[in-house]
Amino acid sequence: MTNQIKIAVIGIGRWGVHLLRNFLAHPQVNVVAVVDPHPERLAAVKQQFNLDADVILTTQWEDLKKVPGLTAVAIATPATTHYALIKDSLQQGYHVLAEKPLTLDPGECRELCYLAEQHHLILMVDHTYLFHPAVEQGKAVVQAGKLGDLRYGYATRTHLGPVRQDVDALWDLAIHDIAIFNTWLGQIPVKVQATGTVWLQEQGSRELIHSPSQGLADLVWLTLTYPDGFQAYIHLCWLNPDKQRRLGIVGSLGSLIFDEMSLSSSLTLLHGEFEQQGNQFIPINQKQIVLELETGEPLERVCSCFVVSVLNNTPSEVSSGWVGTELVEILAGLTVSLQQGGKPVFVNERQG
């Protein structure tokens, strides 16, 4: 079996440039083509990365079908284009790494997963947080029982822009925290609820499957209920100057906090519990432990995992197409709840 793969990067916007950078640096990857509809972007990356003359730069996806021996594609295009591009890529026999979300429709996601399995190809989704050292270590802490009996979870993801015109704050922001909670808990929500407020764009695009008629929500509050009764609460907003990236799980023995904005450490274990004395509850065993993390860029880990999966033809257990499908199913359920003013929606787990 060859230990080198030929890859094409499709879409070199803000995130696609980072994918290109990582694949160019990978010793087992030969970047043979870059596709983007904007010629000025192609010219910019050619100069930025000093690309070899034999790297094909094209505005047309169809040109890739003429590239001999192409092994895989990395897709970093708008989510509305994912389904058609991924389906065509799989039918051409290419392994696929797709930017999240996999698609905007759970049915399309399942179809693509089955298509990849049918053709014995890797379909992986770039859920970068699942490769973050803090998320990996946080999973070990939670599942080792160091928090005691789990009580609830919470997350806040806010900033001042960018404001999207194609999706609301739910689809733009929620997938990260949901993925982390699912990973730490080792579960998938069975019931979801969402409420939201619109200030900036009162009429959302009717063309988008997840766009409620009342517009694109700028502020969204989510509740996720897991099979064991655990609940996580998520606050999302893209017009809040107070930028936060904070997620925590609270247990009977303490809390685990993942705070990306922290200058000291992004992952902290806060021990603390109560001792009952008569009718009083007295805090005891309080201490703070800053957890040491491995170094390394999460996206580099994503790209390396994809390369290993392709070379071994073994799907990623961390971020397979099925993992991406589960997350889209949850977002779709939350969208229904948001459109219905917070009505609880039950999410079906994948069958088979």
UniProtKB/TrEMBL annotation:
Q: What is this protein called?
A: Gfo/Idh/MocA family oxidoreductase
Under Pfam families, the record lists: GFO_IDH_MocA, GFO_IDH_MocA_C3
Q: Where is the GFO/IDH/MocA-like oxidoreductase domain?
A: 138-256
Record domain Gfo/Idh/MocA-like oxidoreductase N-terminal: where? 5-127
- N-terminal signal peptide: none
Where, if anywhere, are coiled coils annotated?
none
Classification lineage: Bacteria, Bacillati, Cyanobacteriota, Cyanophyceae, Nostocales
